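Hey,
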Amino acid sequence: MPSTDLTILVTIRGRRNTLPRVMNYYKSFPAKVIYVDSTPESSYEFAHMASPHTYIHVPQKSYIQKLSDCLAQVDTKYCIIMCDDDFLTRTSALYSTKFLEENKNFVACWGQEVSLRDNCLVAETYDYLAKFLPTFDKPTERVRNCWRHFNGGLVHALCRTEALRKIFDFHIENKELDAIRYFDKTFAFCLSALGNVKCLPLCHAVRSDEESNPSLLRTGNPSLTENWRPHLRFNNDFKNHDLNPLANLVGSDVSFIYEIHGDLCRGDYRRSFHFNLMKQKPTRVQDFRDEPDKQYKIEGRTLYASYGSGGDYNGNEGYYQESSINQNPGELYPSFNSMTHDDLGVIIRCVEKFPIAGRA
């Protein structure tokens, strides 16, 4: 698969201390990369580090608008949106584009994610180990399944570019539904309305969960999110809007949207699914946290297992547990092969070579 078939859009707003490491990581990556910076201040002083890729500064544009405009210029078949502190693996770039090339009835795919913490790595499990949630022909069945088993990581799925354009066009046209705490749900809804999405048996991305690197909502700087209405909550406020545009996407009525909204908010389908999976596939992970010599390490960082998905590593129901992995993680994670080990090693070395300090 030639590198010109994939474009990575790296979103930036108010945080530039991560840019040296991410720009160096993607410098020789087999894809086109566009860094889309809507930080209110002046252009990034060291934007030249983006070379051979592209850096653009659009300080007056919202998240939706800047990506919609950028997608209009993307000339590759496939595209993915990544945060400035996260890393797409080379393995996923290769095999995800190959999968979409060979499976025309799928609009997107992703795989297992690994959380980058300050001194370790944490691998999530269930969306991969499920083998997998079924595919559906009808849009209503796909979006019901998507929200019942919601995974916020879908916003970082590798997609057909045309599908991404349609999703952002929808949000431009329906500004009432454009809010930061809604977006991962409405994005997943729109993506599932367009076609099936596959979770592949591979390590897709490394997502930052570093203490020194808080998300936009946790920065304590309201100016970075105020134009994306952070006061609106999905559980309490979403149903107060006109939801006919979503219903029309899948040929349903609004009562269907209310129904699956309740499914997502309760979380009982997802919870039951995970419990049943645990019963069917007992894990071989043991707790080696007090036995460092038995821990599996990559570049000196212990790899932990966490029974969850979509970044929900420590759910309040207590069924997500965290344990260190033994010397053969492939027994639990077939996606952890030599390519994954190499991918994670490259990422960790980059992180350590270009450390972040404070928020800038």
